[in-house]
Amino acid sequence: MVLATEEVHLDSWQPATVLRTRLTAPATRMADAVKGAVDMLVTAAGHASMRCAGPAEVAVLGPLRPCTLVEVRVPVAGVPAAGVLSSLWLRPGGPVARTVHEPGADDLATTCEMLLAWVTGHGHRPTGPPTLVHLCTPEQGLDPGDHLAEIAVPVQRR
Prior knowledge:
By secondary structure, this protein is α+β, with helices and mostly antiparallel strands. The protein is 20% helix and 39% strand. It has two helices and ten strands, in the order E-E-H-E-E-E-E-E-H-E-E-E. It has helices spanning 30-47, 108-121, and strands at residues 9-13, 16-26, 51-52, 57-60, 67-77, 88-91, 94-101, 124-126, 131-134, 149-157. A hairpin with a 6-residue loop joins strand 4 (57-60) and strand 5 (67-77). The chain is globular, with a radius of gyration of 15 Å.
């Protein structure tokens, strides 16, 4: 299967201040590990007098099997209190290629590979890791695995 052009959109991310943490987990436990990390980051934001400013992001930093290294990010707004500065990061903005990832789709790796193939086949090169962006915010208290997400990869024209 190949992603059709109409299934991929070139767009632009705005820079965002995020709280972030990294974790490694087996594929079978990744959803629970990410949910726990998001909950922890949301709690840390609250303790630091900050608020969530968008949906959680999960950047895939390593191979997807058998264990995966990811960076979980929660966009935040507000002036931080002490204690979270080491976890704050400015995620750069810029062009991204994005596609929808269906809930319950077991093979995230295949979708990432198809998106990266589309990127290179359409005259771009990836400039960052594929990132799963949940389309519901942590504050909504919804299980991200039950809702649409998108996969975005930062790109640059070759």
